[in-house]
Amino acid sequence: MAAVMGIGRFVYTPILPVMLEALGLTKSQAGIIASANYFGYLAGAVFAMLPLPGGKRAWFLGALFASAATTAGMAGADTTLAFALIRAVGGFASAIGMVFGASLIVERLAARSRTDLVWLFFAGVGAGMAASAVIVAGLAASGLGWRAMWLASGAVSALGFVVAAALVPSAPDAPTAAGASLGKSQPRALAVVTLAYGLFGFGYVITATFIVAIVRASPEARPFEPLVWIVVGLAAAPSVLVWNRFAGRIGALQAFAVGCLVEAAGVAASVLWVTPTGALFAAAALGGTFVGITALGLMAARTMTAGDPRRAVAVMTVAFALGQIVGPLVAGYAYDWTGSFAPSSLAAAVALLLAAALAFSVRKAA
To answer: Is residue 176 part of a domain?
Structure first.
């Protein structure tokens, strides 16, 4: 997870400001490149739901290898189209790695009655994000440019591939009850939650893509630029465990709504409170919520589905991915028109408030 998601998917954020300055990219071009990655993620998530030949371990390791290769491959690109194509393939690999990796790990933990350790798997996302910040900051301090940053990130991802290949055994997959009933079917409630999940995808992704660029543009907050993405990663690492325990007390859907409210505050702070304190608060609010909320939304959807939940998870993933695709495009073009990320970020905060309201409405209707 650290390699295929934390680095493979999110290292673009700390490298982006360096690329913008070196290549003279516009914010709309940066948004296109980011959205290409999310489009690839959408395609990969849908593809992973199909009946595929070969074992899960082979797909999992293939995805890790492709993620490392595309991460390093960004160093050899020069045009927006080339960047976008490479990032799209990388996003596809991230989704495959996430789906098959989660399946492999959860099956093995369930077979050993240790599903309480699932949060460690998802903690890899935050750990990889923090590692990517350290890599980029270290190379920047050494005077190296964006190409070296992509190459180094790819090398670390390749190390993750080697470690995963050594640790994940090639034993046969544990049998699963494909048709097991997980709850009472609630199609209307599921439709509302799916809409909320799509709004959440739009709400978090603008800040997740551009927060480092926002901080760099502020003379007061710029010295904290390397620290901001580290805070996001460190806050993300334990967030699934924290939100899981919170959901155990008030319910997954209610915890989802509270998480959206917290994240809305952080997204708004990223553009309204651009000081060292505000930037660190925004980073902590983003990192401390988005991975946990992602898991909570899927948990809530599964409880509303009778039988095999794969279709519900697929629909939720599509809604989430569509929100992610739209967000960077809107933010990039809005910046080029207005010279600020404030309009799009505040729109994202409103989207998160709407997501929370929709989740609470389901609670009242239940």
So the answer is: no
In a domain, 293, yes or no: yes
What does the H/E/C string look like for the chain?
CHHHHHHCCCCHHHHHHHHHHHHCCCHHHHHHHHHHHHHHHHHHHHHHCCCCCCCHHHHHHHHHHHHHHHHHHHHHCCCHHHHHHHHHHHHHHHHHHHHHHHHHHHHHHHHCCCHHHHHHHHHHHHHHHHHHHHHHHHHHHCCCCHHHHHHHHHHHHHHHHHHHHHHCCCCCCCCCCCCCCCCCCCHHHHHHHHHHHHHHHHHHHHHHHHHHHHHHCCCCCHHHHHHHHHHHHHHHCCHHHHHHHHHHHHCHHHHHHHHHHHHHHHHHHHHHCCCHHHHHHHHHHHHCCHHHHHHHHHHHHHHCCCCCCHHHHHHHHHHHHHHHHHHHHHHHHHHHHHCCCHHHHHHHHHHHHHHHHHHHHHHHHC
Low-confidence ranges of the chain (pLDDT < 70): 171-185, 305-311, 363-366
- Is there a domain that residue 343 lies in? yes
- Indicate which CATH number applies to the domain containing 30: 1.20.1250.20
Write down the pLDDT at residue 182.
46
Total domains, the chain? 2
Asked if 192 and 166 sit in the same domain, the reply is no
Domain span at residue 79 reads: 1-171
- Supply the pLDDT for residue 309: 54
